[in-house]
Amino acid sequence: MSLSPKDAVLYPASLRDLCSDVDLIICDLWGVMHNGVSPYVAAIDAIKQARASGVQTIFLSNAPRPRGHVRAHLIEMGVPQDIADNVVTSGGLARDHVRSEFEGCKLYHLGPETDFNTIEGLPVTVVQNPDDADVILATDLDFPRVESHRPWLAGAVSRGVPFLCANPDRVVHVGNKLFLCAGSVADLYAAMGGEVRWFGKPTVEAFHACVAEVSLPLETVGERILMIGDSLQTDIAGANAAEYRSLFIASGIHRDKIPGLEKAVVNGGVLQQEFRKIFGAGKPFPYAVSNFLVW
Fold this sequence. Notes:
- It contains ten helices and 15 strands.
- By secondary structure, it is an alpha/beta fold.
- The chain starts with 7 loop residues before the first strand and ends in a 5-residue tail after the last strand.
């Protein structure tokens, strides 16, 4: 007898198991569809199979770049063009916010020159010194260590400068290496008393943007929308806040927890208390878990 999802997370789960009563899949990219270097063949097949069964799909990424750049990168990496048609990015959502709220302002870009496409064409004056800024738009880090940003962040906090975080992720794997993301600096800014505006997951607005993109009514029953992601802090927390079902992919940033999950399986699931022993008492609880995204 299988366990109820109210008592336990379903594990291991395939996408086929979950698609029978789903209208829309919102799927993370990095850690689910690719590792930053190459795509996962089984994940591509899973999305193709879901679409063939009549389920709509859209990718939701905390990439701090415009959607067109992310889509082009996916195709260049080897993701088929026919499944990379719908993409919403945190960078695109942040750009929309700058256009509507900060036209004519002085903007400091926290991040490398390679992310310049995120601020390109915006109706702002880009400044090189953060002390001159009316608003900060963060796509990455200026320094390898988060604490190295504290001195100039203190000045921005004292002036009440809003910090727009276009990449809420705290860490990301590139291949087998782990790197800090802009979300880690945003956490520091908030801890110092600064105003942080988050874009992308886990904000409910990012999930609603996906629903609107595929023309589903916002009042679509949440259980008919499935979020797939590898981050409990962003993907699963956001799905829970939006009241959607979620499939947690354990091989992403939490890959070191897989042995504990496999040991805790009972009757096709992992009890809530066991899941929280493995991942932490305060972590969001998903509907189902798979080591990898497979059909």
